[in-house]
Write a structure and sequence with these properties.
Strand order of the largest sheet of chain A: 8-1-2-10-9
Largest sheet of chain B: 6 strands, mixed
Largest sheet of chain A: 5 strands, mixed
Oligomer: heterodimer
CATH superfamily of chain A: CheA-289, Domain 4
Number of strands of chain A: 10
Number of domains of chain B: 5
Strand order of the largest sheet of chain B: 14-18-19-17-16-15
CATH superfamily of the largest domain in chain B: Histidine kinase-like ATPase, C-terminal domain
CATH topology of chain A: OB fold (Dihydrolipoamide Acetyltransferase, E2P)
CATH architecture of chain A: Beta Barrel
Number of domains of chain A: 1
Number of strands of chain B: 22
Shape of chain B: flat
CATH topology of the largest domain in chain B: Heat Shock Protein 90
Structural class of chain B: alpha+beta
Distance between the termini of chain A: 48 Å
Distance between the termini of chain B: 46 Å
Strand content of chain A: 35-45%
CATH class of the largest domain in chain B: Alpha Beta
Number of helices of chain B: 21
Shape of chain A: globular
Helix content of chain A: 10-25%
Structural class of chain A: alpha+beta
């Protein structure tokens, strides 16, 4: 039962990658029907969540191998039992500075489509069971474009949790665009 | 869902192999081979395709392969001479066969009269006259109609006693009975004397034998054929009792179970023993399973190198057996890895065998006569490499035929043999595979190339390149000297893409040309894309791997040998030649690395793209076999890095792409000249660079 629902949900989230924010609000919020579970984690006081079916594992931060000339929020790569997994700093991705990672920081390994990535967060909070009707659309206030990466908002007690659209959040990093500026390190530095 | 889906998959996999074989053998035939085994091999392949097609009820395919087989049968016993028209017909028939297999596999419908023209031609050749619309033969039953010239009806007595394990080899007597029934009138008497008491009966064993009486127009070999796949699992005796017209008494020839059947008078003398009689020496394994095995062994190699790293300073005298054990582990791991890699090794034949067809088609299109010679087709490489070499080879052959070889008239005028020669060869050399493609055509028109290169600004007006440099300019992006664009080659996206693809595999390609005599492409590739020998280096505390095949030497240059050009390009003088330096820490923007090459280490690397360059790193850690892991499976591609590996400590280490590193260092120099060049000067320099080398000056090379 759960698996079926999750399937539709992850389909929806990959689909949003190519939709405009308006379409997204229309497409997504109503589509999440029934109850669904999310893993929530925090950066400072902010809470985010991803679909539990996306989460492969959660591990403590370990030193990663830095790849040259990558955006700051790309912390490096990790050996996850033989597969090489890129690790992204979520705080840094939201332009709040780099996380000073220690062994109490947490890497959440998630699957986005057929890619496996890790996101560095401060801590994992809990697992939320949410009914689709509880998900609120994101108010389209700022034009930073960052709200594009949020599928919806959920209230859990006193807290507000933002549901992440991981597919769109790291679209440029994990979807190979044709001949991008990867060959031009100067462009990446800028 | 089709319950036979699984078997069909296997069948189509086999068909692909068989069709490949047919292609190879046909090529041999077209080059005038008179080895009777060639025709037999084609016959067997077509026969196997027919058998499966019958079983899975692909009627059109079965009917066609039957006619095809009939033609082959007559050719192999010499009733139809093997002429050029005949071979050409065989080629076209094999095309139709491929198309039919393909359509059966993709479950697409072909038109009812698909291939009917070929069928007509076959039937003209077989019967000397055009038959009724051959394509209307719909069923296998029709397909087995008698095609032999003897119209006599024979009564065969067949004693068929399956061995107990018949069913285990996926044979089914019922199918045989059905098949026999298609040959003529059949009566069967079961022999039950081998039947054990019910309690001892095993449902998976065959106990019942039969005596069949078949009245048929079929020849003895056609009857034998029905049993072709079970000869090993039964005792079989076929007696042709009497010709009804009793004009000739045939000898009773028992067909023994395993031995070579004695050739009855009316069967082709060279007919081989049943194909299935060959002892099984190979098994079919899913590629996924092998890949999993390769991956696991890769992990094992990493664990092993971790163990040996952790215990490297263990005093041997205190832990003698431990140290010995670890040494053995290293040995065995290496051996295991080599054996596992050997499983995936395949002969390049699978690629080479596609080339005669290509050459045939192209030579017809270009109206040039071409002899293709392949050498070393049994040379083995990893299947990952095989998959990648087909396109470059195809491209280079096209290039040779289109641009290299002259037209027939021109050749005769030049006193060359009418037919051009193209040779593909493969061999192992120094842990790599070397593939060369040579022709005896006109060679490279250096004048035209040079002019074109100047036109395109690929080289400056003042620079006089060597012949070799000119020849290799055909690999430059956007280069094509063909006056007119043909649909064979010459869209100008050719050879640079070839070179780039080969380099992406860690390979190299170059061309040697001898004007008027011909040219030769040489392509070298690693034998596998799964492991390689790497040198681990360190810069700013991070470890990187440089592919050993690229490394020439490493050194710590004396201060006096270091020079700098006004462009900011650092050079090191080694034995009289100046070699450009790339600083890894600058290219990768690493802080805390050793900046003075006289205190750091210079690793000299070599590439066809740029010659020799020195990569400046902090220190060498050591040489090690590394397992290549893709970065791109979970991330985008990273400039300067081709892949990654996992070191003994479990950490990821990037594998350097030295060509890309060289390009980046050249770009960096242009984009941000070092402080040694004043700002005013740098602008001028950049302009001059842009003039002399616009291709390098545009940022995105590729």
């Amino acid at each position: 039962m759960v698996a079926v629902e999750i399937d539709t949900a992850s389909n929806a989230s990959t689909k949003t990658g190519i939709l405009t924010p308006d379409e997204m609000a229309e497409e997504n919020a109503p589509k999440l029907k029934g109850t669904q579970q999310f893993v929530t984690f925090a950066i400072g006081a902010e809470e985010y969540a991803v679909d539990i079916m996306q989460v492969r594992e959660i591990q403590a931060w370990t030193e990663v191998t830095i790849l040259p000339n990558q955006p700051h929020y790309m912390r490096g790569v990790l050996n996850l039992r033989g597969i090489i997994v890129p690790i992204f700093d979520l705080r840094c991705r939201f332009d709040q500075g780099e996380t000073e990672a220690t062994s109490i920081h947490v890497v959440v390994i998630i699957a986005v489509g057929d890619r496996i990535i890790g996101i560095l967060v401060d801590r994992v909070s809990d697992i939320l069971t949410i009914d689709g009707s509880e998900i609120r659309a994101v108010p389209d206030l700022d034009d930073s474009g960052e709200s594009d990466h949020i599928i919806g908002l959920v209230t859990a007690g006193e807290r507000m949790v933002a549901l992440l659209d991981t597919g769109s959040l790291f679209r440029h990093e994990i979807m190979e665009t044709e001949l991008d500026d990867a060959d031009d390190p100067a462009a990446l530095q800028a | 869902m089709d319950e036979y889906e699984q078997f069909k998959t296997t069948y189509f996999a086999e068909c692909a192999e068989l069709l490949g074989d047919v292609e190879v053998q046909l090529s041999a035939l077209s080059t005038g081979s008179e080895d009777p085994e060639v025709l037999h091999a084609i016959f067997r392949a077509v026969h196997s395709i027919k058998a499966g097609a019958g079983a899975f009820k692909y009627t059109q395919l079965a009917a066609f392969s039957h006619e095809f087989e009939a033609l082959l049968d007559r050719m192999r016993d010499g009733r139809i001479p093997v002429t050029e028209t005949g071979v050409s017909l065989l080629f076209r028939a094999s095309d139709i066969l491929s198309a039919m297999v393909e359509s059966a596999e993709s479950k697409t419908e072909l038109t009812g009269n698909f291939g009917s023209q070929i069928l007509d031609e076959i039937s003209i050749m077989v019967n000397g006259k055009s038959s009724a619309p051959a394509a209307s033969k719909e069923t296998v039953n029709v397909a087995t109609e008698d095609t032999s010239e003897s119209e006599a009806v024979t009564v065969y007595l067949i004693d068929f006693a399956p061995k107990a394990e018949l069913f285990k080899h996926a044979n089914e007597p019922l199918l045989i009975v059905r098949e026999l029934k298609t040959l003529g009138e059949l009566s069967a008497t079961p022999i039950l004397n081998q039947l054990p008491p019910l309690g001892k009966m095993d449902g998976e064993e065959a106990y019942i034998a039969w005596q069949f009486k078949l009245t048929s127009k079929a020849r003895l070999d056609e009857v034998e054929e029905v049993f072709e796949f079970v000869t090993e699992d039964c005792s079989l005796e076929i007696t042709s009792e009497a010709n009804l017209d009793a004009t000739e008494m045939e000898e009773d020839i028992p067909v023994s179970e395993i031995g070579n059947p004695a050739s009855p008078a009316n069967t082709p003398p060279a007919a081989k023993g049943p194909v299935t009689a060959a002892k099984v020496t190979s098994i079919r394994v899913d590629l996924d399973r092998i890949d999993r095995l390769v991956n696991m062994v890769g992990e094992l190699v990493i664990t092993q190198s971790m163990l040996s790293q952790q215990t490297s300073d263990l005093p041997a005298e205190q832990f003698p057996s431990m140290v010995r054990g670890l040494e053995e582990l290293a040995l065995h791991t290496r051996e295991l890895q080599e054996s596992v890699m050997a499983i995936r090794m395949q002969p390049v034949k699978s690629v080479f065998s596609r080339m005669p067809r290509l050459v045939r088609e192209l030579s017809a299109k270009l109206d040039k006569k071409v002899n293709l010679v392949t050498i070393g087709e049994n040379t083995e490489v990893d299947k990952t490499v095989i998959e990648e070499i087909s396109d470059p080879i195809t491209h280079m052959i096209r290039n040779s035929l289109d641009h290299g070889l002259e037209g027939t008239e021109e050749r005769l005028k030049l006193g060359k043999p009418e037919a051009g020669n193209v040779t593909i060869s493969a061999e192992h050399r120094g842990g790599r595979i070397v593939i060369t493609i040579s022709d005896d055509g006109r060679g490279i028109n250096r004048k035209a190339v040079l002019m074109r290169a100047r036109e395109r600004g690929l080289i400056s007006e003042t620079h006089t390149p060597s012949d070799d440099e000119i020849d290799n300019m055909i690999f430059a992006p956007g280069f094509s000297t063909a006056e007119k664009v043909t649909d064979v080659s010459g869209r100008g996206v050719g050879m640079d893409v070839v070179r780039r693809n080969i380099q992406a595999l860690g390979g190299r390609v170059s061309i040697q040309s001898n004007p008027g005599k011909g040219s030769r492409f040489t392509m070298t590739l690693p034998l596998t894309l799964a492991v390689m020998d790497g040198m681990i280096v360190q810069a700013a505390g991070d470890k990187y791997v440089i592919p050993i095949p690229n490394i020439v030497e490493s050194l710590r240059p004396p201060k006096s040998s270091l020079k700098q050009l006004p462009t900011g390009q650092s050079l090191v003088s080694i034995r009289g030649s100046y070699i450009p330096l790339c600083f890894l820490h600058r290219i990768f923007h690493l802080g805390g690395a050793i900046t003075d090459p006289a205190e750091a280490l210079v690793v000299l690397v070599e590439s066809e793209e740029f010659g020799t360059t020195g990569i400046v790193v902090d220190e060498l850690i050591g040489q090690q076999q590394v397992v290549i892991k893709s970065l791109e499976s979970n991330y985008k591609s990273v400039a300067g890095i081709s892949a990654a590996t996992i070191l003994g400590n479990g950490k990821v280490a990037p594998i350097l792409d030295i060509e890309a590193i060289y390009r980046i260092s050249q770009q960096d120099l242009r984009n941000s000249p070092l402080p040694t060049a004043s700002d005013g000067l740098s602008g001028v320099l950049q302009d001059s660079l842009a003039r002399t080398n616009p291709q390098l000056a545009t940022p995105s090379i590729g």
